[in-house]
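look at this:
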Amino acid sequence: MNQDHGKGGVKHVEAGFGASGESLPDMPLKVVVFAELTPRDPRTGQSTERRRRVPVDRGSFDEVLKGFDLHALVDVPDRLGSAAEPRIVDVAIGDLKAFRPEALAEAIPAAHDLLRLRAALGELKSARLRLDDVRSLAGSLESRSAVLERVRSALLEAEPAAAPQAPARVQEGGLDALLEKVALPEGEPSGRGADLDRLDALVRDLARSSRGSDHADPRAVEGAIREIDAALSAQVDALLHHPEIRRLEAVWRGLKLLIDRTDFDKSIRIDVIACGREQILSAFDDLVVVPESQGISSEPVSFVVVDLEFDRTPADIEILEGLAQRGAALSAPVITGVGVGFLGLSKAGDLARMPGLKDRFGSPEYTKWRGLREAGASRWLGAAFNRILLRPAYAPGEWGDRAFGYRERLEGGADEPRVWGSAVWAVAVLAVRSFGRIGWCTDMMGQRASGTVDDLPVRLYDRPGGEAVSFPLETSLSDDVERDLTANGVMAITSPLDSDRAFLRFAPSVHAPQHYQDPVDRARAKLQSTLPFQMFVGRLLNYAMAVEGLLVPGRNADQIASGYDRALRSLLGSAGRPEPDAVKVAVLPNEQDPSTSDLYLKVRWPGSQSLPGAGEVELRWPLQI
């Protein structure tokens, strides 16, 4: 199979020897990730662009995130008072802990003060503070909210007069009745938002119970704490589920998933670029294409991850065409995502009820998509579908030190505001894992270990008329839907029910394979239109071009052929000892100018023996001898 090729630099390290004893380069896996890592401007809806490539690995991830100095300015409903206007909140994101409930509560001044008051009530319950201490703290807090004002007012009005009085006896029926309304399991608030009247009564009761004593009724204190938790939970829900906060949490957790699942000891390097949809093509040119084509980069890019989801609109297809062309120029596959809008749906759950998609892809709405698939450059483009869950819902006792009793409330069924990450992260994890195991990004699909991403968060789905099931994806896909997506150039991430595993059973590139009558030729064309095959072609091509300067100058045709044969067998050897006929090298007369020579390579993809000729790559280009 003939493929276009381009050049890239490579860092030379000791890895083997050519025909004359020279050291040959060991080419690491170089991954470039484009992701919208920065907050969007509330006025323009566009994120801040950072025109630089930032290396990241396990050891530097936290420092990289901190170095972005992220501040998300969002407006959320005021759940702590009666204000009609939303609260404007500046969320500083210095690490992934910034997305935890207690950190988000600290970002809201009124919630921050309620946390202080709640902590003081806890100290009062355990008799480490007196009521006067709590009363003093409440009076010193500067923020204003209906919840805090109600507590402050109740504490002050319940303050004892100067003349000592006999302790007021709490009416058991009244307090018990109040406590019954908040007597829920430990850590679970009584509702979303505090009942201010009940909170007022509980605070007054705990104040009265402490008259003439250093101790307050622990039941009343606990009841007041739970009402405060209810208020805090409602406010944190509003902030945690804000679309911009969820988007930022998802993109950084997606990157963290890739970093955590990468074995950096296996010569794998990852660079990240902060970029939104509007700047993706220009940033790709400036930070990837230009450095690669001008030899500025020390190592060729192996593949590119673009954490954006595209639909079927002409504008989005145009961007996809641009990404495919740039991938072809680099001989580096570009992996991106398509969302439910690409399928003409409003939500992913609708797909679970569809029998198939064959007719849909034949409709006029996909004319430009079909045109893209016919283009040769689309071999270098992969489109993944079905988002993965990146964080389970918060529940009491499941998220570190609790500053308050919080259980994340998710409402809306299939539209629950969860932290969904693009399917590109799953595909990228499979690719880097394959490289770490065999030195090639080719063993990355199937229902067994090769194509499986395990230990993912899961969510529970209710099935009409059946038992609830759990799995880590946004929607389940029937075999027919998966087949139709695959046949139309989309990589579908699927999962067995009641499992924390997701798998990529088939990994097509966007390219439409040529149709043949012969079934063997048809199967061969299909295999050669897969993402793993393009991963193989890209690495082979970039390596062959990288060693040209070592193996060609000053050598005759036999020496060149011998050197390339040795170099390519060494490269293939990471996946197992290559067969004698796995590599064929020849120096041939140029067809246009017989006085010059071409280098001809024919290399077989490891693992493709089941389909003769399917994994064979043929390359030919002129030599300067």
Observations:
- Residues 109-240 form one domain.
